[in-house]
Putative gamma-glutamylcyclotransferase (Emydomyces testavorans), 183 residues
Amino acid sequence: MVQSSSFHLQPNTPHPPLVEEPPSPYEVTLQSAPPDYLTNLEGATQELPPEYPVYYFFYGTLTAPANLKRILDLPVEPKLRSAQIIGYTLGKWGDYPALIDGDTGQVVSGYAYLVQSEEQAQKLAYYETNAYEVDSCWIFFTDGEVPAEISGRTFMYAGDPKALLEQRFDRKLWARQMAGKLG
């Protein structure tokens, strides 16, 4: 049963004008896609660009060129570029800084290094242990050189960020570390 409302517009009652809001970026992207974008796979198998070299953003012990030289078995100390990432924050995992998602606009300063190969990336991951995992990030260089910003990678804390900030036992990280020893 439909109930009628007791609210009636009077013929001369002004009403607010309809305001059409601009489409969201998501809507614009969808509107610009071809009608068959979900089913047309032609061209979807083209080669991806090479993964290396790629910049890695460092914020802790890897910001020391001597450490990188030793870990990567380099003949000379590497060139690091001063940089920042935005939207992250640092917590403490024991004596070590641990990168986690932060508030919008929050800045973490550090350095970036151009990792040349999968082998170098694996050496860095081994050094960082499974307490950290590689994640994509947008790197903003602060040294005035080109490029000024670029898509890259960084090591983020693999455990529970809330437990890290509250400095309490991290069951998620413990389970991750034990899986490596038991598996």
Remarks:
- The first strand starts at residue 54 and ends at 58.
